[in-house]
Amino acid sequence: MSVHLQGITWEHERGHGSVVAASRAYREQQPDVEITWTARSLQAFADQPLEALVERYDLLVVDHPHIPSAAEEGLLAPLDEHLPAELDDAAFVGPSHATYRHGGAQYGLATDAAAQVAAYRPDLLPEPPRTWPEVLELARAGRVLWPAKPIDAFSSLVTLCAGTGAAVMTADGFVDRDVFEESFQVLGELARLVPQECLSANPIEVAERLTGSDRWAYAPLLFGYTNYSREGYRATRLAYTDIPLRDGEPRGSLLGGAGIAVSARSRHVPEAARFAAWLASGPVQRGAYFDGGGQPGHLAAWEDETLDAATLGFFSGTRRTLEQAYVRPRHPRFLALQDTASPWVTEALAGRTTPAELFERLDQASRDHLREDDRARR
């Protein structure tokens, strides 16, 4: 009997082309399984609640901060009994795979790995800056862009704070005040040096501007897209590299990425789970998934020299950043905190509120959303 699965992902070659290409390859192996994919906007991918989606779709490409609340509300199917032993944390880059686990069960697989990294035009800038003073010097020369719309500005602030090794976003508050002030001072200076329109730009828009004009050469913090490093994707290519170093290490980058999950409401959980496990496997990740425009999470792809060469060293150039990435709180109410707080960071960068006001708001919001009585829930 044939099975028709419905999936939802996000509208970019990395999110949509990858799973469509992989699903086509899967049907060659499993002709009785057909998978149809719907794409939603990147903003909806980050913000749209999963409650309605699990009623319509069997397979969902999700952002890992959704996992704790989705798991506790029974929206996603546990995948553990459907997974081969080799799909464990060690099979994926950095902490990616673990972010889809909650309450001891695995609710997704890290098919897509990302964190904030740096990007540059190697034809214009043979060596990118490696420290924040070097970044600001290049920005003063008018060569730097930075995506700082609310979610990206918030992510950048968290990245800089986490890079100090301090605890960030706990029930006790946002972060130590001195760490916040040091981090925001850097970002505030950067915001004054880049074009004002950066305050409403996302990583894709910055990548488009970097590849579309020789005026700009570098961006210090943005979520990486291997697509812009591939031959023929745009007229020029970007190289991605580690974020600016702190004490010689690219620490603290906010972990992004995406994973494949299965609706608990699906009438075909076993079939959907088998596809998810196949999609996350090393051969598929470095094969059909990558070829379709995907950005794999499996280490087999990250260690593939052919894929690395095809992306101007994307995987080797950013792996240290991924391995030392910061994982956002594994808390059911974290997304509410992120949605509430993100616009505040951009407002402060634009000078509409003071850094002191921003700190007080972030600190109180962290205590309100990540209360001690909830924090024990894992």
Describe, in short, the structure shown.
With 378 residues, the chain is α+β, with helices and mostly antiparallel strands. The chain has helices at 13-29, 42-47, 53-56, 67-72, 132-140, 150-162, 177-193, 203-212, 269-280, 282-291, 299-302, 305-310, 314-323, 334-349, 355-369, 372-375, and strands at 3-10, 33-40, 59-62, 101-102, 105-106, 109-112, 116-120, 218-223, 239-241, 258-262.
- Beta percentage is 5-15%
Q: How many strand segments?
A: 10
The CATH H-level superfamily of the largest domain is: Periplasmic binding protein-like II
Distance between the termini: 39 Å
Structural class, from helix and strand content?
alpha+beta
Form type: globular
The main sheet orders its strands as 2-1-3-10-6
CATH topology of the largest domain: D-Maltodextrin-Binding Protein, domain 2
Please provide the ordered H/E string of secondary-structure elements. Answer: EHEHHEHEEEEHHHHEEEHHHHHHHH
Radius of gyration: 20 Å
Major sheet size, sense and barrel closure:
5 strands, mixed
Contiguous low-pLDDT stretches (5 residues minimum) are 373-378
**Overall residue-averaged pLDDT value:** 96
| CATH C-level category of the largest domain | Alpha Beta
Helix percentage: 40-55%
Count of DSSP helices?
16
| Count of domain modules | 2
CATH architecture name of the largest domain: 3-Layer(aba) Sandwich
Protein name: Extracellular solute-binding protein
Organism: Auraticoccus cholistanensis
InterPro entries: Bact_solute-bd_prot1, SBP
